[in-house]
Amino acid sequence: MRTQVAIIGAGPAGLLLGQLLHKAGIDNVILEQRSRDYVLGRIRAGVLEQGTVDMLDEAGVSRRLHEEGLVHDGAELCFGGRRHRINFKELIGKTVTVYGQTEVTRDLMNARDESGARIIYEAESVSLHDFDSTSPKVRYRKNGEWGELDCEFIAGCDGFHGVSRQSVPQNAVRTFERVYPFGWLGILSDTPPVSHELIYANHERGFALCSMRSATRSRYYLQCALTEKAEEWSDARFWEELKRRLDEEAVANLVTGTSIEKSVAPLRSFVAEPLRFGCLFLAGDAAHIVPPTGAKGLNLAASDVHYLSRALMEYYAEKTSAGIDAYSEKCLRRIWKAERFSWWMTSLMHRFPNTDAFGHKIQEAELDYLVNSRAAQIAMAENYVGLPFGD
Ligand code: FAD
Ligand code: DHB
């Protein structure tokens, strides 16, 4: 089998890249190790920046997003028993859209099916070869039979645990990492959201986040120990703990119910540099991880795909490699901005074990400064709603 671009992974990065390249007439094949239903069963991000929405528009997959997505003008920070609204719209004239990653993925998969472009689910033992030459290959096994894909470029969109980054010689890549001493326990429930905007709460018992997927479906998270198991949290225990971490009004408005998903995710900051190795490009979680507090993971994957899709289109249309040569540097500038913001918001909102009374006072002072300084709120709003995706 031959193609121009082999894409490893059918998460949001791989599917969006595939769709944009297909629309530009660049042939591509997506290889995904899991089944379609497995990929759709993973509950992850929920907040889309305008730049991500613009890319989904460009890919022609945003009809449902505009019908069902919830446009939010602001978000609330809760601490000391009170809520404080950060009004993005008033501060910087921008908004975010709440629309689940699962739905983004579903829309992209449906578009892929309609386009007839090739996607191979349940591709096992994927391996990357000769990407330091001009004729790279990808091998895989499907239904017990081996397949080989000859291509011109490989896009490694296979997430943090994928094979792409691991295929690069260790001395060619530098990594930067911070693992946080806590995780997030998340639940999804068919209950109306507690508030019409997101609430990020800093409480002495730990961070809590109230989010949503629609007017009838809520997503809540609690900071938890890394040793915590989702099975050990009954729904009743989850709701009790959430109530302890919210303000009185939120507690009064909280509608509890049966959870339809419950999972624990660790928190990590990670960057691999560079993002290009010959004909192999890393994009999305394959290259970097942010802790979820700033809602940046999915948006950063979309911004990598913005740069990569443009670079490849330029290469095929104009026979210039300027875009692909600049890919890594352009992405990394944006990645480190998102890494800084996600680290800052994680530090601001969580309880860190082994932090002394001075540390807690400084956190309180920082929160107080934020909600009383227009300049600080503008800075937060600019980072949260996201900078425009550059050229
Ligand atoms: P992924 O979505 O990870 O997709 C990679 C794909 O590659 C997967 O489908 C995988 O099956 C496939 N793959 C892996 N290895 C191979 C292989 N060897 N061969 C072929 N295919 C392979 N972000 C937020 O902003 N908010 C959140 O609340 C949030 N929660 C998260 C919870 C969890 C548990 C995780 C893991 C991430 C979360 N994120 C969150 C981050 C966000 O979901 C990711 O940044 C986003 O999914 C990145 O998209 P991606 O396409 O780069 O990677
Ligand atoms: C959601 C997740 C986040 O990490 C975040 O910062 C905001 C919302 C969510 O899943 O809805």
Q: Count the helices. How many?
A: 13
Uncertain runs:
none
What is Rg? Answer: 21 Å
Biggest sheet record: 8 strands, mixed
Assembly context of the chains: single chain
Strand content: 25-35%
Structural class: alpha+beta
On the 0 to 100 scale, the average pLDDT is 97
**What is the general shape?**
globular
* Distance separating the two termini: 33 Å
- Distinct ligands, ions and cofactors found in the model: flavin-adenine dinucleotide, 3,4-dihydroxybenzoic acid
Query: Within the largest sheet, what's the order of strands?
Result: 6-5-14-15-16-13-17-20
Helix content: 25-40%
Describe this structure in words.
This protein has helices spanning 12-23, 36-40, 50-58, 63-68, 88-92, 101-115, 163-166, 235-245, 248-253, 297-318, 322-349, 357-372, 374-385; strands at residues 5-8, 28-31, 47-48, 70-72, 74-79, 82-87, 96-98, 118-120, 124-129, 137-142, 145-150, 153-156, 174-189, 199-201, 208-214, 217-224, 259-273, 276-277, 280-282, 288-289. By secondary structure, the protein is an alpha+beta fold. An 8-stranded mixed beta sheet has the order 6-5-14-15-16-13-17-20. The protein has a 6-stranded mixed beta sheet with strand order 8-2-1-12-19-18. The chain has a 3-stranded antiparallel beta sheet with strand order 3-7-4. Helix 1 packs parallel to helix 6 (101-115), helix 1 (12-23) runs parallel beside helix 10 and helix 10 (297-318) packs antiparallel against helix 11 (322-349). The radius of gyration is 21 Å and the shape is globular. The relative contact order is 0.17. It binds flavin-adenine dinucleotide and 3,4-dihydroxybenzoic acid (DHB). 3,4-dihydroxybenzoic acid is lined by residues 45-47, 198, 209, 211, 219, 292-293, 295.
